[in-house]
TrEMBL record:
InterPro entries: RNA_pol_sigma-70-like (IPR039425), RNA_pol_sigma-70_dom (IPR014284), RNA_pol_sigma70_r2 (IPR007627), RNA_pol_sigma70_r4_t2 (IPR013249), RNA_pol_sigma_r2 (IPR013325), RNA_pol_sigma_r3/r4-like (IPR013324), WH-like_DNA-bd_sf (IPR036388). The keyword Transcription applies. GO terms for molecular function: DNA binding; sigma factor activity. The keyword Transferase does not apply. Keywords: Sigma factor, Transcription, Transcription regulation. It holds the Pfam family Sigma70_r4_2. GO terms for biological process: DNA-templated transcription initiation. SUPFAM superfamilies: Sigma2 domain of RNA polymerase sigma factors (SSF88946), Sigma3 and sigma4 domains of RNA polymerase sigma factors (SSF88659). Belongs to the sigma-70 factor family. ECF subfamily. Residues 28-88 form the RNA polymerase sigma-70 region domain. This is RNA polymerase subunit sigma-70. Residues 114-163 form the RNA polymerase sigma factor 70 region 4 type domain.
Length: 177
């Protein structure tokens, strides 16, 4: 890191707005280059860079030492790329699952409707795991990798999803009474 950049970081940490603006301009190409290697799509790259610059602008005063600046900034970009990737994966999973994809082999159409309603009513974190594991038949490690969670979390969420679905299907409807 050059002397000039170190001085800008020190001044920005002390609240100098002009130094902060110069620092934002100087850092943007490096951040963008790093984001290109880390993010999964071009939209995510742009979003991650903007968020990193915004975090830099808002939190530069919290930086304790100039030496940690670069790793701190790149860690912000890395976390943001990962967060955007998880959101994109969650949206992809929800978009891929269509209610008509369930097999029409059920003898009881009411059971099929109840099952579909129970699955769609699940909270997102349970629905994602349930669809990947029980509908698309991925293994627990594959589901964990797709969602960025542990295998234990997959098992726990799957158990909870199945329990919720069983409770909803077993609960008699007012129209059935």
């Amino acid at each position: 890191m050059g002397k000039n950049k170190e001085q800008l970081i020190k001044l920005a940490c002390q609240g100098d707005k002009q130094a902060l603006e110069k620092l934002l301009l100087i850092c943007q190409p490096d951040i963008k280059r790093f984001a290109r290697r880390t993010c999964s799509t071009s939209e995510d790259i742009e979003d991650a860079v903007q968020i990193a610059l915004w975090q830099l602008y808002r939190k530069i005063g919290m930086l304790k030492t100039v030496a940690t600046f670069t790793s701190w900034l790149f860690r912000i970009v890395e976390r943001e790329c990962y967060r955007l990737f998880r959101i994109r994966q969650a949206n992809k999973i929800n978009a891929e699952f269509q209610l008509d994809d369930l097999p029409a082999t059920y003898s009881n159409i009411d059971l099929k409707i109840d099952l579909i309603n129970a699955i769609t009513a699940l909270p997102l974190i349970y629905r994602q795991v349930f669809i990947l594991k029980d509908v698309e038949e991925y293994s627990s490690p594959e589901v964990a990798a797709k969602l960025g969670i542990t295998v234990e979390a997959v098992k726990s969420r799957l158990h909870r999803a199945r329990t919720i679905i069983k409770q909803q299907i077993k609960t008699p409807k007012i129209a059935d009474i």
